[in-house]
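TL;DR need structure tokens for one chain.
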Amino acid sequence: MSKSIVKEECAANFFDDTSLHNIVKEEIEVKEEPIHIQDVDLKLEEGIEVHEELIYFTEGNYLVKHEPMHGDDKLNQRTHSGEKQYHCSHCDRDFSTISHLVKHQRTHTEEKSYQCRQCNKAFPQKSNLVQHLRTHTGEKPNQCSLCDKAFTSKGDLTRHKRIHTGEKPYQCSQCDKAFATKFYLTRHQRTHTGEKPYQCSQCDKAFAHSSNLTRHKRIHTGEKPYQCSQCDKAFANKSVLTSHQRTHTGEKPYQCSQCDKAFTHISNLTKHQRIHTGEKPYECSQCDKAFSNKGNLTSHQRTHTGEKPYQ
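>> reply
TL;DR here they are.
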């Protein structure tokens, strides 16, 4: 028996069999047979209690209406307040209405029947496929009203707007930091837990972030995907390419605040600033001398070892 959710915000606006039939056809593409309406006490997935909401399902050729058990005023209150009391048991997402939860859970449990004709990806819902197709067409219908950026999905637009508003709704429970997206909160929380879920399959190293694992893997593969457009050099990391390109452009973006010197790399600025601060972090283990940079320490240590590499 197949069950497919019909958007409650759509279904609530229709009162006769014909209108309901039309909305069901649009949302779930049922066959042309008549749709009958009956009231049933419908239990959803295990662990979900149905109450306070009006939900429509299809079961075979029937449109099934589940009436609210305690009225639907609280549903409206949650919609306006942003409260999200329905938790997905498969992941960490929460939803304000049970219908949105049920629709989301299909992404975990249902067959991916909507296939993209331009690539091999498949999706459990038609709306997911429509959004994916925009990666091929370049369509970005969700326009920011505060700048000229546009996005393929409403969710991406919502997250982007927080750049303008400064809103950071995701608060760390371990410290006072807050974040604009749940993704960055999750990343940050690993600094407290020490969790490193991204394990290298070639060695025993593990990482807190997937991007760090991706960069690390290039040590094993030798991959250098970042090619300089001015010469034949290539690099494993984009930041190293950016740094290298300054040898062609002459750009020196790192300015010393104590004098008029500027540098192409931030590491060179850091070393230079020790001239002003007097900091000498590199200590010799054989005597009490210290140096402002590692190169000078290495040269000094040869006075102890007797090494003469340039003979």
